[in-house]
Amino acid sequence: MAKIKYTRIEGRSGGYYAFMAGSALVASLLPISALILFLQGHHVTGMTNQVPWGMPIVMAIYLIGVSAGSLVLSSMSTVFGKTEYKPFARVASMLAVVLIVAGLMAIIMDWGRPDRVLVPFFHFQPRSMFSLNAILYNAYMLIGFLYLVALFRENEVWAKRLGLSAVIIAVGVHSGTGAIFGFVYVRELYNSPLLPPSFIAAALSSGTALMIIVLKYTFDATGRKLDVGYIQGLGKLMGIFILVVLYLIFIENVTRSYAPKNYEASSFLLLHGGKFTFYFWVGLIGVGLVGPAAIVLNSATGSSVRWILAAAWLQLAGVLMERYLIVIPAQILPLELLPGMEITSVFLDGQFATYSVSAVEWMYSIGLFGVVAFAYGLAIRLWPMLPEEAVMQEPPA
Fold first, then answer.
1. pTM, two decimal places
2. What domains can you pick out in the chain, each with its CATH number?
3. How would you classify the pairing of strands 225-226 and 389-390?
4. What pLDDT score was predicted for residue 131?
């Protein structure tokens, strides 16, 4: 493959300044909402004693997943020999680092005590997935950064070694994130050995969707040439990942429904859970998975850049919905502390809980997207992240 020339964008156009100003404005919601939460406490959120994990945790696992998917895509050229992905390795790796940082910001908000951020590192507990993930996340950021440095220096030997390490740590990080929920055996909608692989599959599909959107809009905005074959190829790859996600969700829910002890939890999510059932069938399955898969795997729409872009946006929204449905409904169901007995107390033990995302949680969540967008715009302005053109090589005659 011919040597690729990476360059910075000029960043002097009105469109660029408008993008950066808009991103900064959205990002400003993050410190404002964090300050409100720090000063007033968690009572200003929709979280309660019954639902202690709210939108911040949803955003955390969502951003960490997209990050892992981006990092795996970045290593496609260095590790798996897919040289057609080489033009985008740098930007995918950079986004992976930015997204994991944003995901950890969401977790810090949920703690409510950012001054205690170092506590997990001084009190290690090998049987705690939280403790293990603290190590995994930091190792992930370090390897992702070193891998990006190797890509910049065009050191193929170290890029391959660190790329392989990046794939391993990305799988480990998101498996660990899925295990945080999958290993909680007291809640039927959490406890599942399929959550770690399901998390990884959704990470790959959402990471691919993000790259489709970022590449198309960035190349168009900066006047660079992007071969339509790249978007079509990424679209088909996203479609395959979506099918894997659908399969794992199907198997997980069939297995859960088969066990008598899980009947109530399963039927709550799938049949009579109100808005959660609607979110599952319409938001996740219909709009977020089946819809985009049908678009990109259809010969007519799968060759259209506009349709692929639409499918990528739907997929990102669908995975966010999946993360919401993983975190929230399991906490709505009452815990069966004493099987066969009814529990009533002033703390609503044994009763269904309620949860709605509060304004401050929406502010913080949207602010995280602003931080990612601003960091991306700044990075492509300061460093040579993208090639001047991305044209697919013709196969040899």
1. 0.93
2. 11-251+358-390 (1.20.1630)
3. parallel
4. 80
